[in-house]
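Recall that a protein's primary structure is simply its ordered list of amino acids. Everything else, from secondary elements to tertiary packing, is in principle encoded there. The following example makes that idea concrete.
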Amino acid sequence: MKATIFFCLWVLIVPLTACSGNEAASLYETARLEEKQNSLDHARQLYEEILRKYPNAEVAADAKKRLDALGNTP
């Protein structure tokens, strides 16, 4: 059930953010959903990807805060 909800949200959110051409925002929204689904390892990977690929993006500071809150290791 949770996986179905996550997938439906992902299908709705990702295209909207992708249309704006903002990959970093799309990754951030996906990471937040992963957190809510308790997929913390994947959320960490996505936050790290944002920081690595898009260090100057608007969501980079938020990604760093979330990564710090989750801890850098599983």
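DSSP finds four helices and no strands in the chain. The mean pLDDT is 84.
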